[in-house]
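Human: Note token order:
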Amino acid sequence: MDYDELEQALTRGGTSPGPRDSAAAALEEIASGERELRAVRHPLGFLCLPLLREGPRGVCVHLFEPGARAEPGAAPMHAHSWELRSHVLYGLVANLPVHVSDGGASPTHRVFEVHSEPDGVDEIRPTPCLVRSEPGPGLVSSGGDTYTLAAGEFHATVVAPERPAATLVLGLALPGRVDLSLGPLDGRPARTVRRLCDTGQTVRTVRQALRRIHAEQRA
């Protein structure tokens, strides 16, 4: 899997099969046991397969399985410290932009910093910053679509709980940036844990994803 080739393919847009084929090839290696990789369960409910990490650049596949739910206390409205380019492999993925302004006399949320540790623990720390947030119009992307999100752009990702979806995600971390989330005004420090799935669960889920990717290719 080559980051530059994927980025070029996604930047060109169109319906090139290259990104989907690259994702499928990587998943085949996991499903066959050729590559040992365990999925990470994100607090927001999806499974992450970290396929590539090259310094500030990374490639993951995110799997949104039917019935998956976010952990209690996980903040759906967040902003990445990295630039994101996401290609929908199958299903429908909605991104809801969140417009944030100074809270003034009537703030709605407090800004929190999210510090991720190598062991999978996310330390969520309240800041003094109070803001007003308003949701903007959602953008729904389907299989074959690519969307981008700039670092620092608050948003929420919404996937129908009864419908599976998957995305191929390219990320470029920017120096000096911190992941952020929006939480309650009286929110306190908290922590969430990104838990590893076992090998059997990872392989079963990857095989299901491959069947859906192949069905999308035939459609």
